[in-house]
Amino acid sequence: MLAAGGVGLVLTACGSSGASTSALQSYLAAVEPIRLGVNNLLEGADPIISNYRDHRYSGDQAAAAMSRLEQSFGTYMVEINALQPSDRTLAGINAPYAHTYILEDSYLNALVAAFPGGDFASLPDTQSEQREAIIEWRVQLEILANAASDVLPADLQQAGRGEIAPSVSGPS
C-alpha cells in the first residue's frame, strides 16, 4: 500500500516538476559515496562477529572493534541525513532512506553494548523496516530515472537485498 502511494506521488511529481536529469545526477553523486562507503564499512562487521563467535575475540575486544565500526558508520549517518536535495521529489525520497541509517546506527550501538555480556536478546529488530524503506527508495529512483531517460548505477539493484544488520546468530 505504501509503495503504491509513493509511486503515484513520484509519477505525479515527475509529470509536473519532477526531478530533472541534473537534479537526479547531483543527488546520486552525493549519495553514492555514502552508500558505497557504508557497504564497504559494514563488510567489516562479519569478521568481528566471526572472531567473537570463534572465541578469537573476547566480548570486550568485539565491543571495541564494533564500536570503532559504529563510530565510522556514524559519520555516514550524519552525511546522509544532512543531504538536503533542493528538488522536493528527491528530498521526499531521501528522508525515509536517510532514516534507515539512524536505525542501523541504533542497532550497531546496541550490538556494541551486548558484546561484553554476550546477551543479544535485546537487539532491536529493524531489518524489515530498513529493507522496506531501502527498496522503496530504489524503486522511486528507478521511476525518476526512467522518466528522465537516465541510467542509475548498476549496483543500485542490490540495495535492500541481502543482510541489513550484522547477525550474531548463525554462520556469517
Report on this model:
The chain is mainly α. It has one domain (22-158). It is built from six helices and no strands. Helix 2 packs antiparallel against helix 4 (59-82) and helix 4 runs antiparallel to helix 5 (88-114). It starts with a helix and ends in a 25-residue tail after the last helix. The relative contact order is 0.17.
Give the helix/strand class.
mainly alpha
Number of extended strands? 0
Let me know the largest β-sheet: none
Order of H and E elements: HHHHHH
Task: Quote the distance from N terminus to C terminus.
Answer: 33 Å
Q: Helix segment count?
A: 6
Please state roughly what percent of the residues sit in beta strands, choosing from under 5%, 5-15%, 15-25%, 25-35%, 35-45% or over 45%. Answer: under 5%
Which parts are unreliable, with pLDDT below 50 for 5 consecutive residues or more?
1-17
| Total domain units | 1
Helix content: 55-70%
Mean pLDDT: 84
Q: Kindly provide the radius of gyration, computed on alpha-carbon positions and rounded to a whole number of angstroms.
A: 18 Å
